[in-house]
TrEMBL record:
CDD domains: SIRT4 (cd01409). HAMAP family: Sirtuin_ClassII (MF_01967). This is NAD-dependent protein deacylase. GO terms for molecular function: histone deacetylase activity, NAD-dependent; NAD+ binding; zinc ion binding. It comes from Hermetia illucens (Black soldier fly).
Length: 305
């Protein structure tokens, strides 16, 4: 990426960081103090993050009122069964992902990601389970991170154990489509793909697995797909050995995240939620803060005991 492209990307993220965040009242000093008290008495708190943490980095979510992808377009994420059985859908997905990758992979952590990394380093939280596929927690320096739905930075074969980095696969896609007209992505989606014209998809070539010839897929749990049993077991263990659960930026409408809240409730562990608007877990939460994560979490680092 050239200097001008890098500057354009930075400018785009600066604009998008507010464009994709729903309107809400500013966080109050009491909100911050209350969350601080929650964590101070529970240093073994586990954090569950959703798309609302990454919207402030310029990655839209699906469901937010007025600004989410569902509110702004007819786009719906690809279904796993469709991707698995349809070469045309795989071609469409990879063409869109190819165009959007440079911008998606250039996304940088925001203040909430960095604050969580520091809270972990200071042993003030146990670790993070994230529903996001953008790797922003790892980019920010968090170590104990479990990606509930995988991530977009690895590509896997659906028939064998072949794996390759998404950056390397981008080079492979470029070589296979060396006559492909360069397109600038107008905006990205939560899963990293973009809208492009049908004529840009028709001739797009998607390489098969170099080991077995099978179809390649990002290591993401698509809608309708199943979370690996090993990941489920790991997250359940993390909840059961914690002393509280803090949800950041998630409506909890996807059951894989809500299930962890139900487990915490079953174990009689306290539950705190920071999210703009209602969530599926509000009725079992001990604490609910209706605010931007970026206005509540980073200030925790500066509270004097």
């Amino acid at each position: 990426m050239g200097l001008l492209d890098a500057r354009a990307t930075i400018t785009w993220f600066q604009r998008a960081s507010s464009r994709f965040v729903p309107k809400c009242n500013p966080a109050t000093k009491n909100d911050i103090q209350t969350l601080h008290a929650f964590l101070r008495s529970r240093p073994n708190t586990l954090v569950l993050t959703g798309a609302g943490v990454s919207t402030e980095s310029g990655i839209p979510d699906y469901r937010s009122k007025d600004v989410g992808m569902y509110a702004r377009s007819n786009h719906r994420p690809v279904q796993y069964a469709d991707f698995l059985h349809s070469p045309e859908i795989r071609k469409r997905y990879w063409a869109r992902n190819f165009v959007g990758w440079e911008r998606f992979s250039a996304t940088q952590p925001n203040a909430t990601h960095h604050a969580l990394a520091q809270l972990e380093q200071e042993n003030r939280i146990k670790g993070i389970i994230t529903q996001n596929v953008d790797c922003l927690h790892s980019k920010a320096g968090s170590k104990n991170v479990v990606e509930l739905h995988g991530n977009g930075y690895t590509v896997i074969c659906l028939k064998c154990d072949y794996r390759v980095s998404r950056d390397e696969f981008q080079d492979t896609l470029k070589e296979a489509n060396d006559d492909y007209e360069e397109i600038t992505a107008a905006s990205i989606r939560p899963d990293g793909d973009v809208d492009i014209k049908p004529e840009y998809i028709w001739g797009f070539k998607v390489p098969s697995c170099p080991s077995c010839g099978g179809p390649l897929k990002p290591d993401i749990v698509f809608f309708g797909g199943s979370i690996p049993r090993s990941v489920i077991s790991k997250t359940e263990e993390m909840v059961s050995t914690s002393d509280g659960l803090l949800v950041l930026g998630s409506t909890l409408l996807v059951f894989s995240g809500f299930r962890l809240c139900l487990l915490a409730n079953e174990l009689e562990l306290p539950l705190a939620i920071v999210n703009i608007g209602p969530t599926r877990g509000d009725h079992i939460a001990n604490l609910k803060i209706n605010a931007k994560c970026g206005e509540v979490v980073p200030p925790l680092l500066h509270i004097q005991e």
